[in-house]
Write a structure and sequence with these properties.
The complex is a heterodimer of chains A (about 70) and B (about 250). Chain A has a single domain, classed as F1F0 ATP synthase subunit C (F1FO ATP Synthase), CATH 1.20.20. Helices cover about 85% and strands about 0% of the residues of chain A. Chain A is built from three helices and no strands. In chain A, helix 1 packs antiparallel against helix 3 and helix 2 packs antiparallel against helix 3. Chain B is built from seven helices and four strands. Chain B has a two-stranded antiparallel ribbon with strand order 1-4. A two-stranded antiparallel ribbon of chain B has the order 2-3. In chain B, helix 3 packs antiparallel against helix 7, helix 4 packs antiparallel against helix 6 and helix 6 packs antiparallel against helix 7. Classes of the chains: A mainly alpha (about 70), B mainly alpha (about 250).
């Protein structure tokens, strides 16, 4: 296998990290909707967005690796 | 004809005024220019906003008051009353990151928060500062931070190294989170923008599909606006949480 195709495959594999971020973000907002439906007065939205940002960041670590493989090396 | 577009070119540091001091490259770069503009803008908002001191605030004044109250509330909620001593630092950090992120979204601008060295420098300042505050407040007792309460001794052998590791890893996760968000977002914008030109150059009816990546880019800009504000918020709130750990030890 030559280097160019190995890079493409590697970048694709690195993007698998986004699966986790997707599940995490889905969980965060599912929990937010659940809690707001049960108790509309709950002050949880700032925490939900904090959780969203933290979950999204983990996926972006993988995406950043994919970009590095594709465009830097 | 092919158009060569490199999505990472937007992060290239270009010297505007070359300065070399004894073999050290200390040039005034586009990154430094944007940081100067950011500092000037943040100062302008706060100084211009507090100029009138009206009882019924003008738009500028309420912008300054809102950002002040936002950070003051964040510190009160997360650190407690002792945290007010560190208000100037946290406020400066928040305004610097927020305005830097937002300025980066202007086309042909530059995102200095997309540079790992900038975010790591800020995270290292937070980490070292918080550690010094913790040691100054508690002395040797600060080390008890790494020992969880009510855990059998055998488990401590396992847990203390994990606690120490998770403490040392903080500046890295803090800096990489901001850097990766900014870099990935702006690279994604550039990649989708890069699809537009080849589609426009294509033959026949395929040209019409150039609308699709353009539309994706417009939606991504809204996401990036959210992310820019959110990441500034996350960076500051994590700084507050680390401060609370140092002041209260759990």
């Amino acid at each position: 296998m030559d280097l160019a195709s190995a890079k493409m495959i590697g970048a694709g594999l690195a993007c698998i990290a986004l699966v986790g971020a997707g599940i995490g973000i889905g969980n965060v907002f599912a929990a937010l909707i659940n809690s707001l439906a049960r108790n509309p007065a709950a002050q949880v939205t700032p925490f939900a967005f904090l959780g969203f940002a933290l979950a999204e960041a983990t996926g972006l670590f993988g995406l950043a690796i994919a970009f590095l493989i594709l465009f830097v090396f | 004809m092919a158009i060569e577009l490199h999505p990472l070119d937007q992060f290239k540091i270009e010297p505007l005024i070359p300065i070399h001091i004894g073999g050290v490259d200390a040039s005034f770069t586009n990154s430094a220019l944007l940081m100067c503009i950011t500092v000037a803008l943040a100062s302008l908002i706060v100084i211009w906003g507090s100029r009138g001191r009206a009882l019924v605030p003008t738009r500028w004044q309420s912008l300054a008051e809102m950002s002040y109250e936002f950070i003051a509330g964040m510190i009160d909620d997360n650190v407690g009353h002792e945290g007010r001593d560190y208000f100037p630092f946290v406020f400066t950090l928040f305004m610097f990151i927020l305005i830097g992120n937002l300025l980066g979204l202007i086309p042909y601008g530059y995102t200095f928060t997309g540079q790992i060295i900038v975010t790591f420098a800020m995270a290292a300042v937070v980490f070292i500062g918080v550690t010094i505050i913790g040691i100054a407040k508690h002395g040797w007792h600060f080390l008890s931070f790494f020992v969880p309460h009510g855990v059998p001794f055998v488990l401590l052998l396992l847990l203390v190294p994990i606690e120490v590791l998770s403490y040392i890893i903080r500046p890295f996760t803090l800096s990489i989170r901001l850097f990766a968000n900014m870099m990935a977002g702006h690279t994604m914008l550039a990649i989708f923008a890069g699809f537009v030109a080849p589609l426009l150059l294509a033959a026949g009816a395929i040209k019409a599909f150039a609308v699709v990546p353009l539309g994706v880019d417009i939606l991504l800009i809204f996401l990036e606006l959210l992310v820019a504000a959110l990441q500034a918020y996350v960076f500051t709130i994590l700084t507050c949480l680390y401060l609370r750990d140092a002041i209260h030890l759990h």
